[in-house]
Amino acid sequence: MKNNHPLKRSMLGLESEFFCLNENGFMISKADEIIENAKKKKIPVIKECAKNMLELGVYPSVKIYNISINYLNALQGLIDSAEKNNVMLYPLGTYPGSFEPEMRREGLYEVKEKIFGESKFKIAGRNIGFHFHYTLPRGVFNSKTKKLKQPKKSKIADSMVNAFNLMLATDPVITTLLQSSPFYQGKYYGKDSRMIWYRGGKYLKNSDGLYAGMEEIGQLPSYAHTVTDLINRTANTVKAWEKELIKAEIPKNTIRKYPAKLAIGWSPLKVNPHGTLELRGIDMNHPKYILGASVLVSAVLREIFEEFLEVKPSDLGMHHPFKLEGKTIHVSPDSVVREKLQWKSAKKGLESKEIKKHIKGFVKLSRHFMLPEEKKAVKPLMNIIERNATVSDIWIKRVKKSGFSLNQIVPNDLFAELSLKSCRQLKKSMDKTKRTFEAII
């Protein structure tokens, strides 16, 4: 049968965003200077929607160890470039203090500003994330047209759908473990304020969020049953964006300026025009955590593609999350993930027993498939579980220790001081994280 050989060389890709702070811990719009300096050193960094933020991406690699070392080397070069411009890189999902980002208006950024409005578009300039990519299997993606193929019958295609559904089911697990954004514009909204404000919508109880009212464009999708579902979903996303263009009185043919139809849509999980499944709804965090999370997810995806495991939403998956029975992984039903777990992750994090149960189930599943050396890489995440405290919980503790409750307005000066501590932690932890991954190559 065609395309039934397992994909044994899936490649991984990582993207991470950073804020630019001055030596006093306040936000500054100096991304362009850093990018110019970094590109001279061939560091893979690009502009983002606001001038106070930038994005680091590294070339895909088959092995997580290789891409991790490449990422850490590139990040070290980026930190050095930033310091030459008297800038500190801030690595967490939101800057806690209040500020007004300077948004870019060139090209397609102008389109977004017209659709969202000047004020609402600034939400995008106040949130940074981590994006995890996993390449699509052979035979389901046309690299020339940048479109999904529609196979008639293929176990590889089924594996792609199973991988998509697995990544969707892990969203509340990974967003909790990597949450780092308890404060947004000086206020506490939940353990993951970034999710609440960036995704928005009824399930996250925020009608003012960036993608509120744009479910097909920027909110957590539902499970897919077939590749055809994913193809139709892309078409529906394009139609939804065309409607937004028309509402904003932007010519409909502006849609042609996008490099591919798969480039339209900014959901927490999507098929990317680079030929990857992209998990993109996660808070940015320190390298040891985002690399650990990459190992945690990729160990299961590798098994899905190599052993053709089925991912099955079921009631059993709700009561026993990520339970493995034979070649079937049971996950929570769609309504549970999107309507309940998403909110509990954002609002309560590890305070939620249900979230902790899902984390425990996924960690157990992933460790079952991990190579012995990979288990060393996830130790930082295991420490989060053992101490029952994410980076968000640590931030909340620091603010309370400074004499403020979560209901009070915290002074920007204090947030700036605490933010500098995170910048210094980023720089200080680089060598230790690199040694960890060098030891397991």
List keywords for this structure.
alpha+beta, Creatine Kinase, Chain A, domain 2, 7-stranded antiparallel β-sheet, 3-stranded mixed β-sheet, globular
SS elements, strand count: 14
Q: Number of domains in the coordinates?
A: 1
Strand content: 5-15%
CATH topology: Creatine Kinase, Chain A, domain 2
- Any idea what the CATH architecture is? 2-Layer Sandwich
**Uncertain regions spanning at least 5 consecutive residues:** none
Q: How widely separated are the two ends?
A: 36 Å
Radius of gyration, rounded? 21 Å
Rounded mean pLDDT is: 94
The CATH class assignment is Alpha Beta
- Outline: globular
Residues in helices, as a percent range: 40-55%
Largest β-sheet summary = 7 strands, antiparallel
Q: Structural class of the helices, strands and pairings?
A: alpha+beta
User: Can you count the helices?
Assistant: 16
Folded structure, characterized:
With 441 residues, this protein is α+β, with helices and mostly antiparallel strands. The protein has one domain (12-438): Creatine Kinase, Chain A, domain 2, CATH 3.30.590. The chain contains 16 helices and 14 strands. The strands form 4 sheets. Strands 1, 2, 3, 4, 5, 10 and 11 form a 7-stranded antiparallel sheet that branches. The chain has a 3-stranded mixed sheet with strand order 12-14-13. It is globular, with a radius of gyration of 21 Å. The mean pLDDT is 94.
